[in-house]
Design goal:
Shape: globular
Largest sheet: 6 strands, mixed
Number of strands: 6
Number of helices: 4
Helix content: 10-25%
Distance between the termini: 6 Å
Structural class: alpha/beta
Radius of gyration: 15 Å
Strand order of the largest sheet: 1-2-3-4-6-5
Length: 170
Amino acid sequence: PIEKHVEFMKELGFDVLTGGNHVFSNFKAAGDIFSHPDSIQIRPANYLEHPDYPIPGRGWKVVEKNGQRLLVINIMSGVFLHDNMDNPFQSIDRILLGITEKYDAIIVDFHRETTAELVNMAYFLDGRVSMVCGTHKHVQTNDERIFPKGTGMIPDLGMTGQLWSYLGQD
């Protein structure tokens, strides 16, 4: 059933869907959405990997439209979310240091519980990414800001996270 919803979102024009602490909660119903190369669904890039239990899917996706290249990276905090996560600051740093291609913009979805951690992440990434978006709180707080080196931040995208949570429940 989840695969059906992801395909529906793709038909509506969505290019990428990010995830969070519920991304694998209904894994058996998810089908191929995490590992299929054409899937628009990505998962947090910083899940702790184990050689015997590989985590399906990828934590970032490149979207190309009208000659523009957008890199979307999904990471998640381990604070209060009870998942086995690698440090999100070290993880995003490794991802960005490993990038050799050029992008017109880089968006980071930081799925987390605390706004303070998101603000710290935005300061940490200031000038290195275009935007840091928070997800998980499900309430749009309207306290977005632009940091000194040009990175934008919005603490929560509000209903977007609720939509995924709802779709994941089916």
